[in-house]
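**Polypeptide and fold**
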Amino acid sequence: MLKDMALRPISGTFISPMLVDLGVNNYGLRQWEQDFAMMKAVRIDTVIVLRCEYECNGTWLSAEDPRSTTWAEDDCLLDMFFRLCDKYGIELYLAGAQSMTNLFLGDWKREIADTKAYYDRTVPKYAHHPCFKGLYHSLEALPWHYNFAEITIEVIRYFKKQFPRYKTLLSPIFFGPTGDMHSNYTPEQWREVFGRYLFDPLAGYLDACAPQDQIAVPACRLGQIQSNDLEMWYRTAREVLNGCGIAFWANVETFQRPFPGHGEPAGVFRQADYRTLYMKLAAASGIAEKIITCDFTSCLSPNSEWGSSRRLLERYLEMLNIPLARIDEVYGPATGVWGSCQ
């Protein structure tokens, strides 16, 4: 542990109401209540719904599926998210619908129309909830993929014009493939491309942007920490965003992206190594205005299907000098093969 390192806590998390790519948790009401209580205890004040509807190959998944709860309190998981955010004093950002068929076919104007139709229906349905504070545009692609810039600019501008009371949020990626699909953006290229084609047109419409860091290796050689350029990325993003009047948030991922050469399947995002989380928090703490993560329920919750998520939560609380006893108070003592290894 580095001495005298002041880490800013994670104060926001994505949350997924559907099975897409974050694992199966099969939560009941008790597990959801535990996670919301723990999120509140570790200073999380913002929940961002990752997606509310998602289509691929003709099959739609929905956060409002009435089969998604087995308890009487809520008709669907989206209802429950709003209810629990109200109960625990946590702000909620509502995501929209995403059709991969529209994107793959290049029917980006239909994607915009479908997205607007979703918010037109759903925002009034939940507008009475005190926790409802923002709108999140969940498209995460790059400017050269699937007309990302055109879709995003029109949707974010629509948010501000149609629903001006709500804050707006976007979470694109760093270090992704460029238009040739072989090379990757450098920080300076990201500044030019994203600044010119995305953030300049969104000035005055987008309140905050939390780029996904995508960097997962906490390198060290002969006892010396190796540079990974993460602070450079963060400083570049803050400069670009603040220049457009957009708040810079850091999306510090708590899942581990597959590490090249280790034989890990590309679509599996298990919880991160705690050294990776420490590295990311250390880089973001002095730069970002807010730190969020993807996501608590999959990677930091003792209820997660990933066995070491409880231990990652323990290491995270140690980083922030929060007593570990709080975990047992919320979830009960660890038992069995997935128990604590303090």
Notes: The CA atoms of residues 91 and 131 lie 5 Å apart. The mean pLDDT is 90. The longest strand covers residues 132-137. The chain is about 35% helix and 15% strand.
